[in-house]
Each structure stands twice: as structure tokens, then as C-alpha cells.
Amino acid sequence: MKKSILLAIIVLMSLNVFAISKDAGVASFSFLKIKYSAKAAAMGNAFTGMVSNGEVVLYNPASLFYTNENTITTTYNNYIDGFNGGSSVYTFPLNKKRVAIFTQFLTSDDIDKTIVDQYGNYAGKDGTFTSSDILIGCSYSSDFSPVVKLGGNLKYLYESIDGNNEHILVGDVAMIHQTPNPLLKVGASIQNIKITSSNSEKAPIVLNAGLSYHPNKKSYYNFDVYRPYYGDLSVRVGTEYMVNNFLFLRGGYKTNASDWDLGGDMSFSSGLSFGFGTSWKKFILDYAAVSYGDLGFTNQVSISYKLQ
Is the confidence at residue 185, as pLDDT, over 50? Predict the structure, then answer.
């Protein structure tokens, strides 16, 4: 047990060498950092070491190896400030391996174009514009060893903002390790490694490391370190408790809550998340509410269907 925990701590703390980035916010295609999974969102997106349904490919494609059922999962996210998004994931076997195909989207309502004067002051509006992002990806996982599984994603993103179009091809690499303690798994991933794009801008590379502790049949405790290469490190924690075979309660927290702290009445809730899951026959329904402080709550709903 002690050796397993020590290994997990080493993997997680290794990311601390990148604790603060002087290049925070300089990467483009920020949509690539958005994930759609009501289950994961309710648990603070602490999902790198988690074994679950097909939505794991968005966090750690190596975990796909443990998904024994063919599933289709669809998620809708009512995002902040008029943005709406979602995803669909289909997992299936291929030559004794586990693979998946998935898609994501994010669209906006009309956004006001603003004008500034020569002194940088607000000078009115000049019409509106919209933005949209569409992503198509595929996942693959393999049995590297009895205790280590490897996986990867290939993702293509098309982005349109006010009539300006760009595209990018990126890849993810990941691993998940079953520690000597059967109750503890440790995962790590590098996401959004740029392969090619329509311009020379940087992709939002993200480094993740996390653990998932499953002490009994009813509980999960997850802990992640999340580090955008062009951003600052944050910690994510999440938990799940099975009330019975039909109801699961979840909660989570992200330490970068100050990103949405505007000093208002709801600032105290920034970074908090909660939700639940329920199942009926071959269907699974998950819901999550995530607080962005004074910007409000976002809502995610996921529906999964087991094909076999």
C-alpha cells in the first residue's frame, strides 16, 4: 500500500517542475482543452486515473482498455455566456484491442463586435459575429503489460471565428498503471501535441497525472494534477458514492477557481461541482453542475447506451 501511494505521489508531483508558466494564455485552439462528460465534470474533471465508460478517451485513452462493453455516449453542455457544446463517443473492439471514434462541438450565440478609440476606450458596437468549433477524433488502447496499458488519440479540429477559418491536427498519448495495490490506479497523459495546422500558432498542450482509489464497491476518490504547458498548474479532486445499484452521487473541486472569482456573491462557489448518475437496463444517465462563480453554473447531461 505504501509503495503504491508513493508511486502515485511521484507521478503527480513530477508535474510541479512546471508550476507557473510565463507563457500562460498564449496558445490558440483553446477549445481543445474543453471536455464533455457529465460524470467527469461532476467529479471536478479528476479523471486521468479513472476507469469508466467511453468518455475516458477524452481524459486518458489508455483507460479505454478496461471498457468491456460497446457503448455510445452523448453529452450536451450548456456553457457560459451563450456558448453550447457537446460530444459523442462510440467504443468497440477491433482485433482484440479497444478503439473509439468521437466528435465534439462548441457554438456561440451572436457576439457583439466592440469598437475602441485611439486611447483604448470603449467606443460602441459594430454588429455581431459567431464562432464554432468541430472536432473529430479516434482512440486506440493496447495491453502493453499486465499492469500497464497504453493509449492514444488522433484529433482534427476545424475552427471558425467571424468568418476566419483554421484547422489543426493534434495527438494525445497516455498510460494507466495498475499498482501493486489492486484498489489504486495511476494514469498520465499528454494531450494536444501539434502535428500540423493551417498556421504557425501553438496548440494548447496539456499535461495530466492522476490517481483513482477505489477502496470498496461503493466509493471512488480521484486526485489529478492538471498542467497546461502554456498555463499554470492546478489540482482537481473528485469523489463518487454509490447509494444503490441505480443512484450514484458525485462531487468535485478545481483549485483554479480564482480564474472565475469576480468578487461577487457567488465567488465562494467557484470551482465546485456536483452531480449524480443513474441507470436503467442498458441506459445510463449522468448530470453535472459546475460553478464558475459569478459567471454562473454550467450544466452537462450525458446519456450512454450499452450495445451489448
Answer: yes
pTM, 2 dp: 0.85
All three cell numbers of 163: 468568418
153's enclosing H/E stretch is: strand 148-161
C-alpha distances (whole Å) from 116 to each of 124, 129, 130, 163, 279 are 7, 17, 20, 21, 52
Helix or strand (DSSP H, E) at 253: strand 247-254
pLDDT of residue 305: 94
Cα 266 to the center of its chain, rounded Å: 24
- Rounded Cα distance, 15 and 30, in Å: 21
Least Cα distance to 49 among 270, 289, 222, 306 occurs for 222
- Write the CA distances from 168 to 59, 183, 214, 258, integer angstroms: 19, 39, 37, 30
Positive or negative torsion for Cα 19, 21, 24, 26: negative
Q: Which residues is 173 bridged to in the sheet?
A: 152, 190
Tens digits of per-residue pLDDT, 209-250? 999 999 999 999 999 999 988 778 899 999 999 999 899 999
User: Is residue 64 within 8 Å of residue 86, measured between CB atoms?
Assistant: no
Strand-pair partners of 29:
none
Cell of 105: 462541438
Distance (Å) of CA 38 to CA 106, 123, 179, 305: 16, 40, 27, 15
